[in-house]
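Folded chain entry
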Amino acid sequence: HRSGASGWTDRSCDLPGPVVRQPTSGPVAPADRGILTDEHRRLCDQQSLVAALELAGGKVSGPDGTAERLGIGLTMLASRPPP
């Protein structure tokens, strides 16, 4: 992860769209670089949801809808917190 002078770390999850940045508490230890914390996983899930919504043109269900693009059912998508 890159940490800039602002004290923020790039946690973009390598997805298209805006970069989600969060404050760092210090340098990331080499052993921690491969660990995905629950908070980081949630940020990645949120970025993935936003990207799928954009690619689907706001369409949630049906062919080429957000749920299909994410590989989840409509009920599962509806249970997720909004971005």
Observations:
- Residues 1-10, 15-21 have pLDDT under 50 and may be disordered.
- The two ends are 23 Å apart (CA to CA).
- Residues 15 and 35 are 18 Å apart (CA to CA).
- Strands lie at 8-10, 21-23.
